[in-house]
Amino acid sequence: MTQGSSLGPKTFIAYTEEINSVFADHRLGRHCFADDTQAYVATVPSQAHRIAPRLQHYIADVAAWCGASRLLTQPTEN
Predict the structure, then answer these.
(1) 51 to each of 1, 5, 42, 57, how far by Cα in Å?
(2) Whole-number Cα distances in Å, 73 to 32, 43, 46, 68
(3) In this structure, how many other beta carbons lie within 10 angstroms of the beta carbon of residue 71?
(4) What average pLDDT does the chain have?
(5) Of 13, 24, 30, 32, which one is least surrounded by beta carbons within 10 A?
(6) Is there a domain that residue 77 lies in?
(7) Domain assignment of residue 54, given as a range
(8) Could you report the per-residue pLDDT of 17-48, keeping only the tens digit for each?
């Protein structure tokens, strides 16, 4: 989601709580922090081609949810 949000941690969590349904719909794992959310899925390298479309749909749904909630997404840097 957004790191360094202008919302306080509790307000951010309350505001973004409904994003949990997007994770549930896509059966993804997640780590939620005060102002950051990370999605993940575990797979073996030989099955990555099967996971990619699922992640693409998830990203599109998150982007749509963020747009509707007036939030911006920011990818993390490696």
Answers:
(1) 20, 30, 9, 10
(2) 14, 25, 29, 12
(3) 19
(4) 78
(5) 24
(6) no
(7) 9-68
(8) 778 788 888 888 888 776 677 888 888 999 98
Residue type, 73: T
Q: Is residue 42 part of a domain?
A: yes
pTM > 0.90: yes or no: no
Residues with Cβ < 8 Å from 1, sequence gap 6 or more? 16, 19, 35, 36, 37, 62, 66, 71, 73, 74
Q: Which residue has the higher pLDDT, 45 or 14?
A: 45
The position carrying tokens 């005060």 is 34
Number of domains in the chain: 1
Per DSSP, helices labelled H in the chain are: 9-16, 20-26, 48-68
Ramachandran quadrant class, 53 (left: phi over 0; alpha: psi -120 to 50; beta: rest):
alpha
